[in-house]
Design a protein that fits this description.
Blueprint (H helix, E strand, L loop, with lengths): L6 E9 L6 E4 L1 E5 L3 E2 L12 E5 H10 L14 E4 L10 E4 L2 E8 L4 H6 L3 H5 L7 E7 L1 E4 L3 E4 H9 L1
Parallel strand pairs: 5-6
Antiparallel strand pairs: 1-2, 1-6, 1-11, 3-4, 3-10, 5-9, 7-8, 7-11, 8-9
């Protein structure tokens, strides 16, 4: 799917509690109108799942001259590669059987600076902090699952 403008899931994290640690997992269940099963941010109205781009995280690492900076410091739920997330408010993302409606940019907060000096500023430009989304169709997801814009999939099916 990467060749047709899609990407894949490279990491999944669950947050145990508000401001709690981010636990890496190999799979998770997305629940419509709820979020990720077992995640502290579940049941929020629009910010049920957060996503960051692996390619942009690599730029952040380069800007901070820290090639091993762990992307879990961003405190997002999903790390995707091969699919740009900037300026995607209102678009629907397909991950396996699940669909996420992107509601906006996740702005970096003071927690980023506490995690690593300079991280908040490095995440600020170009939607590097990622996006937040609502689960509109649930289903299981796992590492390596394809990620694509639902509109692109629908347009390809109509062709």
């Amino acid at each position: 799917m990467t060749s047709s403008g899609g990407g894949k899931i490279e990491a999944i994290w669950l947050k145990r509690a508000h401001r709690g640690p981010m636990d890496p997992v190999d799979q998770a269940d997305l629940i419509a109108g709820h979020g990720i099963e077992g995640d502290a941010n579940a049941q929020r109205t629009k910010r049920q799942v957060t996503l960051i781009e692996a390619d942009l995280w690599e730029r952040v690492r380069a800007d901070l001259d820290h090639p091993t900076l762990d992307p879990s410091l961003r405190r997002a739920n999903l790390l995707v590669r091969g699919l740009p997330l900037a300026n995607t408010r209102g678009r629907t993302l397909q991950i396996g059987p699940a669909r996420l409606l992107i509601h906006g940019e996740t702005r970096p907060c003071r927690l980023m600076e506490d995690a690593h000096p300079g991280l908040q500023a490095a995440l600020d430009p170009q939607w590097r902090g990622g996006v937040y989304a609502e689960v509109v169709e649930g289903g299981p997801i796992q590492l390596g699952d394809p990620v694509a814009w639902a509109e692109a999939e629908e347009n390809a099916a109509e062709s």
